[in-house]
Write a structure and sequence with these properties.
Blueprint (H helix, E strand, L loop, with lengths): L13 H6 L10 E6 L11 E6 L2 E7 L2 E5 L3 E5 L3 E6 H12 L1
Parallel strand pairs: 1-6
Antiparallel strand pairs: 2-3, 4-5, 5-6
């Protein structure tokens, strides 16, 4: 697992997350797909900041960092799961510049 700017102790296992009251009774969280970059580092217990349409926005406090890869990051808040795709944002920017 790759930790881009995140402390290793902020990424917890699914078992630890469930013990802390994660998704209960198999209820799935709504997934929000975004293209762009998240301000790093992501920290559990703090909101995630991201740029959308020229404005900085923030999420609820991060409860779990699910995946942190070179091309995307996935994390959960109390009500939602966010997935930010980096590659798509870069491709869109290149098309606009052409």
């Amino acid at each position: 697992m790759l930790f881009l700017g995140h402390r290793k102790e902020d990424v917890i296992s699914q078992e630890q997350y469930d013990q802390k009251g994660g998704t209960r009774m198999g209820r799935k969280k709504h997934t929000i797909w975004k293209y762009g970059r998240v301000q790093t580092p992501l920290k559990v217990g703090w909101p995630a900041w991201y740029l959308e349409d020229g404005f900085w926005k923030k999420t609820e406090n991060v409860q779990k960092i699910v995946e942190d890869e070179a091309d995307h990051v996935t994390f959960e808040t109390k009500h939602y799961q966010y997935c930010f795709e980096y590659q798509m944002a870069e491709n869109c920017a290149m098309m606009l510049a052409a």
